[in-house]
């Protein structure tokens, strides 16, 4: 018998001893980081809401209780009874029964009403029918991504369960290493923006944090080195993804092409956005005649291997590593990733990308932890002079430009990232039109912006508190304003917009590196009455940065294959700071200054050379911290 099997037998005996004598335990197993208890008495379990919580606290494990198949009511009878228990105003749209696990997935417009106060309605469902309810939200805006991901995971339940059982045994294996040490190896995004990738190593475990591309460049992370995939893809125990932007997530599917077969830990909205952005990444590559590094099957493999975690859940991801996600305030589902290593041995936090202050979309980044010895901190706007305009001033400046452009009959074109920046702008524009600060006019959403917005409305619990409350009431959902129009008619519809009345266009790509923004520049760029507004970071080497720096001619694809033409831009160009999803220099300093506890060491990463060195020097001088501005392929040992 393996050490894991022995451990499960001991846990089964301990659980049985802790439970009342009228509750039986038929099996105990691991599925990913969770301990799953099967019982023939799920109704009695449900009668005592404290049982699972007390067991989880005593065993220090995440616990799921599932009914033995013999304890389940027939699905037809259970369906009727569940609908009787759940209030009608919850808006249940689907019930999906899975007899292999005894779970019923309840899709509803208002999940909170299905859950009930402190889970009371869920317990009542189990008491009545035996099934274990799992609740998901019906998207207020139909999302093909959310629907496809849910349907795919439903089809792959058997494979996924096998994956989770294998991962669970790996997590809870016996520790073999005699030594104790902690190292971080930088594989990308050091003294540069993009291709984020790090290896966190202990004597027992190896974890990859992020695996992204570099905008405007073919550079990829140094995955071939021995610390990463050089000693085999399955030398990795886990992948942790801080958020879905492509400079952090684009190359995650490549790992499965190389033979990795392990888990990806991220939040649920990041999983969905990751799939959306990666499939678009493949589509753009194909349209530009480039050979993508992987195919769509690898994207599906990544989704199938993803284990979603909620903010604040302390989760075992290896025998000697616990992971906790905290809100990063950057984009939907973005997470500061906190690693607790060993039995109090060492603690490391990776900021990913952060925004410290509250925005219209998100609460500000969390910086309160039980312990942190080392912080790996993004430095995108860490330069000495990287102070962004106050958000209110930025909004006023944007609205002034829109009013001026509208008055002269022009169009406003805003290149924007589909995820995060676009939704922030949508909230600004919706309020401005509703309150009369700018005239009501169409706001055309092109590229993936409408689909990304639909995903945002699926996960309102990840949004700012007051926005979340508005979305729960459909008639107050700002994303459903009449002015918003999804461009789905291609170039013909774009030409109609260009020939029509004043309007606002939000279009991907945010750095003018391809996608529908190129078509908008073709249609509207020659119009001197129109305006191009940059509202986000433009990386070195991108057309966005070049236009920002004064270029008024850019090469575009010609009418014939293999031929390029030059487009003369006559439209005005402006940059409005303050809408970035990144903290500026002051925000980064405040994140560190108010961090509890303050770290002993900080690695400043994900910024150009000037930004990381300025931030590293400033934090050292102002707060007397040991700081570093590492290069790629450096390794830091902390014990």
Outline the secondary-structure elements.
Blueprint: H1 3-18, E1 27-31, E2 34-39, H2 42-47, H3 50-59, E3 62-67, H4 75-85, E4 92-98, E5 103-108, H5 111-115, H6 120-129, E6 132-137, H7 144-155, H8 157-171, E7 182-188, E8 197-202, E9 206-209, H9 226-230, E10 238-240, H10 246-249, H11 252-257, E11 264-266, H12 268-287, H13 296-304, E12 306-308, E13 315-318, E14 321-327, E15 335-341, E16 346-350, E17 374-378, H14 391-407, E18 412-415, H15 421-434, E19 443-446, H16 449-458, H17 465-471, E20 484-486, H18 490-499, E21 504-507, H19 516-524, E22 531-534, H20 543-548, E23 553-557, E24 564-568, E25 572-575, H21 585-593, E26 601-605, H22 609-623, E27 626-628, E28 635-637
Keywords:
Metallo-beta-lactamase, Chain A; seven-stranded mixed beta sheet; 21% strand; 22 helices; GMP Synthetase, Chain A, domain 3; 639 residues; alpha/beta; 3 domains; Rossmann fold; 35% helix
């Amino acid at each position: 018998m393996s050490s894991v099997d022995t451990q499960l037998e001991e846990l089964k005996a301990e659980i049985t001893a802790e439970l009342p004598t009228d509750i039986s335990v038929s099996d105990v197993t691991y599925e990913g980081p969770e301990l799953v208890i099967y019982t023939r008495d799920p109704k009695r379990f449900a009668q005592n809401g404290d049982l699972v919580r007390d067991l989880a606290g005593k065993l220090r494990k995440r616990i799921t209780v599932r009914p033995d198949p013999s304890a389940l009511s027939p699905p037809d009878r259970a369906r009727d009874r569940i609908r009787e228990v759940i209030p009608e105003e919850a808006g249940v749209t689907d019930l999906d029964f899975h007899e292999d696990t005894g779970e019923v997935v309840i899709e509803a417009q208002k999940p909170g009403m299905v859950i009930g106060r402190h889970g009371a309605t869920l317990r009542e469902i189990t008491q009545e029918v035996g099934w274990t309810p799992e609740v998901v939200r019906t998207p207020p805006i139909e999302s093909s991504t959310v629907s496809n991901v849910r349907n795919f995971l439903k089809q792959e339940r058997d494979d996924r369960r096998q994956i989770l059982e294998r991962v669970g045994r790996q997590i809870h294996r016996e520790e073999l290493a005699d030594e104790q040490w902690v190292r971080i190896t930088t594989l990308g995004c050091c003294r540069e923006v993009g291709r984020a990738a790090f290896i966190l190593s202990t004597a027992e475990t190896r974890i990859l944090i992020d695996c992204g591309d570099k905008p405007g460049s073919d550079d990829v992370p140094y995955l071939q080195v021995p610390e990463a995939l050089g000693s085999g893809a399955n030398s990795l125990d886990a992948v942790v993804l801080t958020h879905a932007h492509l400079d952090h997530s684009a190359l995650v599917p490549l790992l499965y092409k190389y033979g990795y077969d392990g888990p990806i830990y991220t939040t649920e909205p990041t999983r969905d956005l990751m799939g959306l952005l990666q499939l678009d990444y493949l589509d753009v590559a194909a349209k530009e005649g480039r050979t993508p590094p992987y195919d769509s099957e690898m994207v599906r493999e990544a989704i199938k291997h993803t284990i979603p975690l909620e903010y604040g859940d302390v989760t075992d991801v290896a025998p000697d590593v616990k992971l906790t996600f905290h809100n990063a305030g950057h984009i939907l589902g973005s997470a500061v990733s906190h690693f607790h290593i060993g039995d109090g041995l060492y603690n490391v936090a990776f900021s990913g990308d952060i925004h410290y202050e509250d925005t219209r979309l998100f609460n500000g980044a969390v910086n309160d932890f039980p312990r942190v010895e080392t912080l790996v901190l993004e430095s995108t706007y860490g330069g000495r002079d990287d102070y962004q305009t106050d958000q209110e001033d930025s909004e006023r400046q944007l609205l002034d430009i829109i009013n001026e452009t509208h008055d002269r009959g022009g169009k406003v074109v805003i290149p924007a990232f589909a995820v995060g920046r676009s939704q922030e702008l949508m909230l600004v524009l919706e309020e401005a039109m509703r309150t009369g600060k700018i005239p009501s006019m169409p706001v055309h959403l092109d590229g993936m912006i409408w689909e990304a917005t639909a995903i945002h409305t699926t996960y309102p619990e990840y949004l700012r508190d007051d926005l979340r409350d508005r979305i729960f009431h459909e008639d107050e959902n700002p994303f459903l304003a009449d002015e918003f129009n999804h461009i789905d008619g291609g170039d013909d519809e774009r030409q109609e917009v260009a020939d029509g009345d004043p309007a606002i266009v939000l279009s991907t790509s945010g750095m003018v590196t391809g996608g529908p923004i190129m078509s908008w520049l073709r249609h509207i760029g020659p119009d001197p009455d129109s305006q191009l507004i940059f509202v986000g970071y433009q990386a070195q080497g991108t057309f966005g940065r070049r236009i920002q720096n004064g270029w008024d001619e850019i090469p575009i694809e010609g009418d014939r294959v293999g031929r390029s033409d030059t487009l003369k831009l006559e439209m005005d160009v402006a940059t409005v700071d303050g809408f970035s999803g990144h903290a500026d220099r002051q925000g980064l300093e405040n994140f560190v200054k108010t961090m509890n506890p303050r770290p002993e060491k900080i690695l400043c990463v994900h910024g150009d050379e000037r930004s990381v060195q300025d931030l590293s020097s400033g934090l050292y001088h102002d707060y007397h911290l040991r700081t570093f501005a590492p290069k790629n392929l450096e390794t830091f040992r902390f014990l």
